[in-house]
Write a structure and sequence with these properties.
about 80 residues; two-stranded antiparallel sheet; 4 strands; about 10% strand; binds zinc ion
């Protein structure tokens, strides 16, 4: 009984996320993108970062810093040559 309800819950979550234009899951590592909050703890941005050109979609802070920025710099260098 427990397994059935858990599977159903996952399906609902997956469907729910898929129906949104702005996914809150990182396109690169698949983890949930943490919302950015101000000093008062109010969420002001929860869409993550643009993962282009590394990937097409939204990504989390970590993947943005470690993967997207370097690939963006690499692309800029290649365009210059
Ligand atoms: Zn990520």
């Amino acid at each position: 009984m427990l397994n059935v309800s858990m599977t159903l819950q996952m399906v609902i979550i997956t469907t729910h996320n898929g129906g949104l234009n702005m996914s809150k899951d990182c396109i690169i590592c698949g983890s949930n993108i943490p919302p950015h909050k101000n000093e008062e703890g109010v969420v002001y941005w929860e869409g993550g970062h643009n993962a282009e050109p590394y990937a097409s979609g939204r990504c989390c802070d970590l993947c943005h810093d470690l993967l997207v920025i370097p690939s963006r710099l690499k692309q800029m260098r290649e365009e210059k040559v």
